[in-house]
Amino acid sequence: MTATQSQGGTPLFRMEGICKRYGGVRALEDASLAVEGGRIHAILGENGAGKSTLIKIMAGAVVPDEGRMLLEDRQVAFRSPAQAARAGIACVFQELSLIPDLSVADNISISNPPRRFGLIDRTAQRRLAEEALARAGAEDIHPRTLVRDLPLSRRQMVEIAKALAWKPRILILDEATSALTAGDVAKVFAVLRRLRAEGLALLYISHRMHEITEIADECTVFRNGRNVASYAAGTRSGSEVVEMMIGREVSGVFPPKPQRHRESPPVLACDRFGWSDRLHDITLKVRPGEIVGLGGLDGQGQRELLLGLFGVLRGTTGNVSIDGVATSIASPGTARAGRIGMALIPEDRKTEGLMQPMTVRENLSFAALDQLSARGVIDRDKEERAIDELVRLLAIKAASLDIPVGSLSGGNQQKVVIAKWLMRRPRIILLNDPTRGIDVGTKQEMYQLLRRLADADAAILFYSTDYDELVGCCDRVLVLYDGRIVRELEGAGITERALVASALHVDAQAEAAA
Amino acid sequence: MTEATENKTSLRARLPAPFRRIDPAVLIAFGCILLLLFLGSLYSSNFLSLEYLLQQLKVASFLGVIAAGMMLVILLGQIDLSVPWVMTMGAMMACAVAGFGTGGMILAIPFGIFCGMVFGLLNGFGVAYMRIPSMIVTLATNVVAQGLMVLYTGGFSPQDSAPEAMRWLATGFIIPGVPNAILVWAAISAAMVFLLTRTTFGRSVYGIGNSERAAYLSGIDTRRIVMIAFAVSGALSAFGGVLLAGYASKAAQAMGDAYLLPSIAAVVLGGTSILGGRGSYLGTVAGVILITLLQSILSVMQMPEAGRQIVYGIVIIVMLLLYGRGPASP
């Protein structure tokens, strides 16, 4: 820690040697952090670098496996967010946590309303809300307004007021500005500066680099579950910061990319594809044998794009064509059928990919039942053969195929999700972050498999939150930002630096350097 | 959780082959049936006579037909509360049509079932397309069916005695000694087992019950499956009503009221998860027999009606509690 300590004493809050694992995946490994009162401390890092786990531990939502936390040199351990809040650590979360049908005052004191004779004291509650709103610089919001009637930016202010109602000494803001426009961000910043002047410690997490440059006093960069660098804000350039966030070599786990002939006509193409206000003007082509990556920060419309192509979303605009023929795909049932032959490996294998309590066998054949049956009656021999073939092909490890699929390891579950779609021999494969939360070994098998499928002329559209994967696997990468394709990278141009830079929308020099 | 599952599997693997695939809940239900028969035989040896057992199976078959449809809907994670009046409607409409000469006689049973199916389709449409919770939709259609039947019987006195065909179906004998109602139930049961284990429809029902989202994303036409399941449930409710009317020789208002709770209880006692996705048809058969025996034994013991209902309700709650502690879905 090289952090200069402004107010001479010990830091207000410290955490040391924090480790947290989820199954085989390490979210945090020996991470430490120190925050001081009267400072705004920014946390930076790629997706999955451990930022959210860190603040969840601070806020009491997650209990660490190892390590200790010190609040003013006294060791503390939080078992619930309420406990952390009472100790003086409050959190403004990324997703709004307000209940739309309750009033602002109800929301602000929802977890700890002032009581009189066991009933909620409405007058006191209202006073409390007014105070908190005033501190958050939102005096104009009436405590009795329903949250539903407030615009998004005002709701975010209520969210901040709700955290302030705990009278915290440390306030964590996790992507608190991601839903706000520039004007609203300026207002939030004014409030943050005033809170800093009042002596609060502020922890600020954002992907928007210019915001961090503008507001932070100190920055800590996280990578792979560790804090790798801390520096005073403004002492490093944008490209240096990007370098710190990536900081590792692309390892040799990826199969070699073959030279491609690009003459073959695209299997899947879409033209000015859009949906609601989440996707705009998406134009792309995927050729047989090609792996096209979707990059960018989390939640920039990649999921919606895949779901939209697969016919899940209502009211998409623009054209989709399959083999050059304009095609309307109204449901997954249409998408998977004959001429189109599309498959989607969904994001959440627990609720979207698998029926957890059903057996491995039943899950494997579920998406291909129509092909394994005649007049609605399942041909058991055919089913058996198809299942055996795929279990061998993907090396699925299960004690028996008759146990619930939910009892397999994460990696094997993901293999089942992919196998159930490969059973249909799809021509177009959409993958929504298929390697999230699975072990490295299975990941490598997955990369080999994708390349084999591509070599067998499948067209693959592959969204990943792991930039390493996009660099290692893809022939082309489309980077999305705010529902639009902002950049297309190709061949040697796909570097982690270029991906991070375009995902963050960083200045042109970082791009030029790439 | 993984360990527990593996333990369970290894334990199951040690059982002899035919029992390995049977849900423990089904075994419990059959065990309870034997226990009830044993307790009954202490009271009177008549409980073990072939005559008594066949009589019980005949009475159980009405409930069995209805519970078969209910099971499909529960496997989807839904519920069908329109049973009582759809049943009554099926019976009344069949009797009414039978009043129109020979043609009416032939069409009586199919028409009764058809009416039930129409109501089932309405339920299915409400659930699958309008996205109304099934508890609300089916409660509403139940009231509509009730209103229609009251309207129908209000102004004049319609034909309400069951035609010969219906009586024969419920109480006649193709095989001497075995009432036809039991054969009907057996045939429907065979069809259900085939439907649930061997067809894409059955597999889809289980899939939707476990995760509708995953089933939809696998390309299943979930709305069609839901519609069909509700239609089958409505048709079987009406068919149950037709059989009951044949047994009682006439259709009457509110004749289905006593069948709603037992049909749900039979399915759940048989080990089908009320949340959908899990359960075997064999269990439902066991549940139906169990409930019928329970009712019969309580009435033979000449317990006053009030006490009978209390015991009946408590037994159902206790059994559900037992299952709840059992192998819960992960």
From TrEMBL, chain A:
* Domain ABC transporter residues, every copy: 13-249, 262-507
What is an example of a GO molecular function annotated in this UniProt entry? ATP hydrolysis activity
User: Keyword set for this entry?
Assistant: ATP-binding, Membrane, Nucleotide-binding, Repeat, Sugar transport, Transport
Q: Which CDD domains match?
A: ABC_Carb_Monos_I, ABC_Carb_Monos_II
* Record-linked InterPro entries: AAA+_ATPase, ABC_carbohydrate_import_ATPase, ABC_transporter-like_ATP-bd, ABC_transporter-like_CS, P-loop_NTPase
Indicate yes or no for the key word Transport: yes
Q: Which residues cross the membrane?
A: none
Do the record's keywords include Transport?
A: yes
Q: Which family does it belong to?
A: Belongs to the ABC transporter superfamily.
Protein name as catalogued: Monosaccharide ABC transporter ATP-binding protein (CUT2 family)
Which organism does this sequence originate in?
Mycoplana dimorpha
UniProtKB/TrEMBL annotation, chain B:
Q: Record's superkingdom?
A: Bacteria
The UniProt transmembrane annotation reads 25-45, 57-76, 82-100, 107-129, 135-156, 168-196, 225-246, 258-275, 281-298, 310-328
* Listed GO MF terms: transmembrane transporter activity
Question: Could you tell me which Pfam families the record lists for this protein?
Answer: BPD_transp_2 (PF02653)
* Entry keywords, A to Z: Cell inner membrane, Cell membrane, Membrane, Transmembrane, Transmembrane helix, Transport
Q: Which InterPro entries match?
A: ABC_transp_permease
Q: Where in the cell is it found?
A: Cell membrane
The GO cellular component terms are: plasma membrane
Q: How does it sit in the membrane?
A: Multi-pass membrane protein
Q: Which PANTHER family match?
A: ABC TRANSPORTER PERMEASE PROTEIN YPHD-RELATED-RELATED (PTHR32196), AUTOINDUCER 2 IMPORT SYSTEM PERMEASE PROTEIN LSRD (PTHR32196:SF71)
Q: What does this protein do?
A: Part of the ABC transporter complex LsrABCD involved in autoinducer 2 (AI-2) import. Probably responsible for the translocation of the substrate across the membrane.
Record text on subunit structure and interactions: The complex is composed of two ATP-binding proteins (LsrA), two transmembrane proteins (LsrC and LsrD) and a solute-binding protein (LsrB).
Protein name as annotated: Autoinducer 2 import system permease protein LsrD
Q: From which source organism is this entry? A: Mycoplana dimorpha
